[in-house]
Amino acid sequence: METSSPFSRPPQAAAPSRLAKLTSLLPARMRERVDPYLEALELLAEIRSPQVLRSLGPSGLRGLLLKRGKQGVPTQILAHHRAHFDWGYPEDQPEMHDLFVRAKQGQWDGDSLPWHISVDPENPEVPLLPRDFLAMDLLKEWGYALNPKEERLMIHSVVSWMLSQFLHGEQGALFAAAQVTEAVQFFDGKLYGSTQVMDEGRHVEVFSRYLDSKLGKLYHINDNLFVIIDALMSDGRWDMKFLGMQIMVEGLALGAFGTLYRLTSEPLLRELLRMVILDEARHVHYGVLALREHITKQLSQKEREEREDWAFEVALLMRNRFMAYEVYDEWFAGRMPRATWRMFIDRSPSMREFRHVMFNRLMPNLREIGLLSDRIRPRYAQAGLLHYSEGAAANQLTAKDVIRDLNTPLVLPN
Predict the structure, then answer these.
(1) pTM for this one?
(2) I need a surface site. Which of 2, 89, 213, 300 has the fewest CB within 10 A?
(3) What is the pLDDT of residues 213-247, one digit of tens each?
């Protein structure tokens, strides 16, 4: 008796896009070569707002088409922002000052983590991630079966890829935190910002050390993450840096860190992630406090709408485009179509959990800062994301709440 499980459907079942139909007549090898550029054009074509296209378009060109993050040399990004000095040193944000005190008390030393623990990425007794993190049985049904050793090696690759993207994101957050500290227009925010610069530097240290000394693998920055970081670094508006890094990217980080924390059995990685998550929760709290009144009371309607559109497009970018193509290139390039890999990632249980946790963190914060108006809500509803907006925002969560959530079994909606 045949099953109706989605894993039994053939990989060609997905409906091709208009551009994909136009390239379907090309030879298979040429079709694979143009697929990354086709995907980039489709992504940019989905952006409705001209202002958002002007903001993300140049970064999309540099990241998605020119592959600036994969050239093996340092990237020069021209930053545009004003450094805001206040010679009166006012105490102008009581909530921010309380967060500053908490951040000082919450500092920790990366050397205090249990680095003595031996990590064997291929040890089935202490897996980095469970086998069903990816839809391995789907690969078998589609004719790309891996033996048990290959499955463990592929999980090793995926975890290394994820942690590499965390590391690259933390470098972006380090630079953005420094820029925001210069540019933010209230003094208590500058004091707190100084603690986040230290936090991000520590995160770069511990992720880099884990990748180097425990996993022995580092991947290039994902093109889509490069686009977001490039756009934030080069945008001169301080509140856009807050929105992009503190709300969007840090929200992504909390979702990804939380998913990996729940699923890994490796004790050093769990403790590393737990400590980083506590820092990241403060960072998102900072973004909510900094943007709440600014967006709702100081921006014009046109400016608010631009930020609403920008946040929506970046949310879709993060939801739809985090496809681990760097792992695909290592394992399946030349023998599996990229379109099949996309379906494999989309149908893997891990991605469902990842998206749930990420948007469960992100959407309440967008609501709290005033970027979830009646105008934009139907678009989130159409994307299947609006129901996440009813939860608690970052400023309503304590450190105990964050840890409790991490240790509570996750129940996904049907």
Answers:
(1) 0.86
(2) 2
(3) 999 999 999 888 898 889 888 888 889 988 998 88
